[in-house]
Amino acid sequence: MKQFLTIAMIFVFAAGSVFAQQDEPEKTTQQEKETKIVIENKREKRHNYLSVRFGAWFPKDEEKRFHINDNVIDETDNAVDESQALGLDFHFRRNVGRPLYFDASASFWYTTTEFNFDNLIENPDELRSADTWTVIVPVTLGLSFAPLPDNPLQPYAMAGAGAYLGFTGRDILKVSNQNEPDDTETYVRFGFYVGAGMDILLSDEFGISIGLKYQFIKFDEEQLFTGHEDMTGLQATIGFVMGS
User: Fold this and answer.
1) What global pTM score does this model have?
2) What span, in angstroms and rounded, lies between the C-alpha atoms of 198 and 200?
3) Cβ atoms of residues 164 and 136 within 8 Å
4) SS3 for 152?
5) Each residue's pLDDT tens digit, 39-74
């Protein structure tokens, strides 16, 4: 009887071990599935991105002319000191169906041109200098295509169009050292852009953002006091991106 009980106990113990071993892979597989679901849910939540980038705009137009009282003063090499436009770009992307995103952006770009008239042979308006400035504010909507939406390195192509607001002003100094009243004007033009970007995600909520946009925008002659007419050109920006 003793031997029978011993054999029966050994059999029960062995059967339990076999069942335990068979159940362990099922538990592991279930845990892997749950972990995968959690990761996928986290990825699904990252469908909004806001980039804040600082950079420079290199307008195509290089010819500068100064307009005053129906007189046009052509550019000379030593008469104009131009700076490229510098600015801040806010770019929002919302996923509308992978890998497509809806884009909305607004940016602010500042440029100045300093005119010096000391070397002019004919100076009927008795001008000494003029400090001019222009602020361009593109407000655009568009689409972007991100082929690797779940990768920490997210390259994307983008295109969009919208309203380009131009605010411009000037401060004129006469030969007599008398300042003319400041002039300011505001204009709105339609434009569009194409470009590419790269978001380098350091975490689910934060990363580095790089953007390149080629802007297509042209103002009428004599509108911008800085002398710019064709503002078509490349924008290069770098900053940070926040995901949600």
Assistant:
1) 0.73
2) 6
3) yes
4) coil
5) 455 545 557 999 999 999 988 765 566 655 555 555
